[in-house]
Amino acid sequence: xxxxxxxxxxxxxxxxxxxxxxxxxxxxxxxxxxxxxxxxxxxxxxxxxxxxxxxxxxxxxxxxxxxxxxxxxxxxxxxxxxxxxxxxxxxxxxxxxxxxxxxxxxxxxxxxxxxxxxxxxxxxxxxxxxxxxxxxxxxxxxxxxxxx
Length: 148
Description:
The protein is mainly alpha-helical.
């Protein structure tokens, strides 16, 4: 059983998948940073919001008096209910960035695949001396059989 597991774990596809998952996780961190640290401050400036991720609508205010209503986390911790529009927009923009990057990668891979398929197959190698000699013997035997 251990031998079978080792064969399974060391197959090329398994290693490729592991590398893809690790790179995907690192890519997710980069996309999150782009969204949170670059795009959202620009969008927040356009909407005149100091922190776009804290753009929210309170559906039910907390029952406690004196709750800080400036952040969605504070409202939720105090027992209030709020729609996190800014958080949703952050997630949506992250998704769109990942989708565009994956589209570009897949499109490039498909283009390379089409180029490989369209390329003419390599010419078969020239027959070796032994093959040439065997072909001559075959042709002589055929000629003798046709005469006899």
